Hints:
This protein is an alpha+beta fold and 471 residues long. It is built from 21 helices and 16 strands.
Amino acid sequence: MKIPDSALSEILDKLDPVEIIGEYVQLKKVGNRYWGLCPFHHEKTPSFTVSPDKGVFYCFGCHKGGGLFNFIMDIESVSFVEAVNILAEKAGVDIKTENTDKRDTEKKALEELYNRVAGSFHYLLMNSSPAKMFLKYLLDRGINRDTIKKFKLGYAPSDARWLFGFLTKKNYGKDFLKKSGLFFERNNEFLSLFYNRIIFPILNIHGAVVAFGGRTLKENVSKYINSPETLIFHKKDNLFGIYNAIKDIRQKKEFILVEGYMDVLAMHQAGLINTVAPLGTAFTSSQAARLKRYAGRGIIAFDSDSAGTEATVRAINILEKEGIQTSVANFKEAKDPAEILQKVGEIKLKKIEEYTINSFQYLLNRAAIRHNGKTPEGKSEIAKELFPYIAESDSQVRKDGFLKELSDYLDISYNSILFDFTEWQTKSLRTVRYPAKSKKYVKEENLQEGNAIDLHSNELFLIIAVVLNRD
Length: 471
């Protein structure tokens, strides 16, 4: 897509780079520049700068830099054309393209299709007789009509052939619908992937519907299904509720991560607007990296059952690796936010932020329940459960603090904990880097690379001993 230079200039003339970049980064003026913590890498001391007179940004830490279009492309993970459209909307500039790229045209067409289908599903939920039991289900779960409208919830009719027939009557072509992600083919018929289900439209950060989640009320079938990967939808990068949550996340510099669609609805209805959820899959590092752009803190409020607990542990480690400080919500009245809303109401749910513990303490409590902390073996197992979390931190100060806290809890000397942690790290490194190589091969390769330390020898542990006893 060729965008006229005059349009690009008009956008830049109308926008203040400090104001736009300031939506993502907290900036402070020092001299003729604005400084802040870089949104593209984890840091404690500001090295990210914006020069308003030149309209450019630059980070002295990771060396990323460029103009306003580059910033939006990087921070939003979008193409140049998409970045231009985002900024054009903010500037009130009408973009008239000179020619059109086929991929961009197809993406735009898919977004228009999904938005229209979402509108149709929403109308059916609110107005059709077959949808009454689905609407009642939502209302009985404590989800009010305002929340239903806010999230554009819908109803997909029970006839799996209805949607394809409806869209072809609206002049959508068979080939286009075939690769839309809305249908599957069986016996030369195109059947809707979503039928007889409550529909949860999945919006990207700009408010475009890019996918759907669907919930059935039937037993003995998959309760939830989600859209497949398409040109406009990638599960690992998207978060349910992000469009409605992004403003509050940026303002609070904090997000709340819940497990499912209903939990997001419940939290937003209770006034906790900075809440999002993964899309029916495990929380991913890509989702964590996206959240890191907008916030440095997070609260994990996954289900309190065994599966939710395991998911919480994984999310804690992923977020710690991204440099996001996390705490975990402590449920007492129910197993998840949606159930709290249904059983005890919005007021109680809104207090969820007040009942949290930091992630390290959560992991320590969990390990202490699983192992006997009064025996040497139990203490060793507790420590091993905490080591992966400690290792993910990129701050040596935080690592040292965690190790000291673990030492105090287990009533073991700090030097012993540090020794075991270092040994664990060494074994983990060897397993990851050389999973299929023999001991001899590792030695030779290390020497060839100029690495004077043999990971299998006692030399590394001698060095550790010297450090521990240097006083």
